[in-house]
Design brief:
Blueprint (H helix, E strand, L loop, with lengths): L9 E3 L2 E3 L6 E5 L7 H14 L3 E5 L3 H11 L6 E4 L4 H9 L4 E4 L7 H14 L3 E6 L11 H18 L5 E6 L3 H14 L5 E2 L7 H17 L5 E2 L7 H14 L6 E6 L10 H13 L9 E7 L3 H5 L6 E6 L2 E6 L2 E7 L3 H10 L1
Parallel strand pairs: 3-4, 3-10, 4-5, 5-6, 6-7, 7-8, 9-10, 11-12, 12-13
Antiparallel strand pairs: 1-2, 13-14, 14-15
Helix pairs in contact: 1-2, 1-8, 2-3, 3-4, 5-6, 6-7, 7-8
């Protein structure tokens, strides 16, 4: 059982972050925010995949004005990502953003920050103080964590002076060890909720590995209230990986988890292809209201069937001309090999 760090609870729209709330999954669109139709379409795909908060880039006034129209057509809270121009933060809040992200590396004028905080107070909108290695002032490569914390302390001081505590912190870098170090130190400074992530983690495979290690280590230590897996990929992929990370740590117990063997010479079928087909099939299952996790085993032979997958809720294993359907490690029946996958889908649907 993971003992989570005690953090202050805030609300982004109706979604709670921090306190004893579940770790929240979020992602960010890569469409032009001004193209309301395409942006809404992508957000709806993210919603269906399990995303609970979504962020959009606000590059100019037109993008800020688009927030109201986007928000009216989606179901999850909308976050405005602000850089350089503080006036865009004010416009985004006035147009209904449920939360804004500020970058201490490129919005540094104290008076401007105070205007944003005053506006956020008026509209009761929380702010993420989102630091990253790409924009923070650097003193030395080996002291990046120090630089991030120094910048965070300065920003935090402004917020404390104005008695504004509806904040979330992130201290992201592309380096896993530096990121972990920075979050550990940040967690000692403030009780604000933490938004976890490895920034610019890279393409699919590298990004998943780095994010899983970095986010996973921090979550195991009880640090983290919301996560974004940053991948150079479809944002929906980010949501899917985030769900898998949380599921692997038993921080989310709903949906379908596939258990499958690595294959060996006993396997006489193309198990890799079959498992990929099952992944696609199960990704379309409506599991949001299930409230539990189903472990599904797809095994290449009977040795790896009910034996190694005995903890699976339901599973199949190939053998000779037939296959075995099993539940909780016990064989239920033999099934024609051609009907085995279909049988599995039917049983899971039940």
């Amino acid at each position: 059982m993971i003992k989570r760090r005690k953090s202050r609870k805030i609300f982004v729209g109706k979604v709670a972050i921090g306190g004893n709330s579940p770790v929240v999954i979020q992602s960010m669109t890569n469409t032009d925010t001004k193209d309301v139709g395409k942006t809404v379409q992508q957000i709806k795909r993210l919603e269906q995949a399990g995303c609970e908060l979504v962020r959009v880039a606000v590059e100019d006034e037109k993008a800020a004005w688009a927030i109201a129209r986007i928000k009216s057509r989606i179901s999850i809270p909308l976050i405005a990502d602000i850089h350089f121009n503080y006036k865009l933060a004010l416009l985004a809040i006035e147009n209904g953003a449920d939360k804004i992200r500020l970058n201490p590396g490129n919005i540094t004028n104290r008076q401007q920050i105070e205007k944003i905080i005053t506006c956020a107070k008026k509209y009761k909108v929380p702010i993420r103080i989102g630091l990253n290695s790409g924009s923070v002032k650097r003193t030395d490569k080996s002291k990046l964590a120090d630089d991030l914390i120094k910048s965070a302390r300065l920003y935090l001081g402004v917020f404390k002076n104005l008695n504004f505590n509806q904040i979330v912190f992130s201290v992201k870098t592309p380096d896993v060890l530096t990121t972990i170090q920075a979050y550990r130190r940040m967690a000692e400074i403030t009780d604000a909720p933490m938004h976890l992530g490895i920034t610019a983690s890279g393409p699919w495979q590298n990004g998943i590995i780095k994010s899983s290690i970095g986010i996973g280590v921090l979550l195991l230590e009880g640090i983290g209230d919301t996560i974004r897996v940053s991948l150079t990929s479809d944002p929906v992929d980010e949501t899917k990986v985030a769900k898998q990370i949380l599921s692997s740590l038993n921080l989310r117990n709903q949906g379908i988890e596939i258990i499958s063997c690595p294959t060996c010479s006993r396997c006489k079928i193309d198990l890799i292809k079959i498992v990929k087909q099952a992944e696609i099939k199960f990704s379309n299952f409506k599991m949001a209201n299930l409230g539990q996790r189903i472990k599904v085993a797809i095994m290449g032979c009977v040795v790896n069937g009910p034996g190694e997958a005995k903890d699976a809720d339901i599973g199949i294993a190939w053998t000779g001309k037939c296959g075995v359907l099993f539940k909780k490690g016990k064989k239920v029946k033999l099934v024609n090999r051609k009907e085995l996958l279909k049988t599995l889908y039917t049983e899971v649907s039940k």
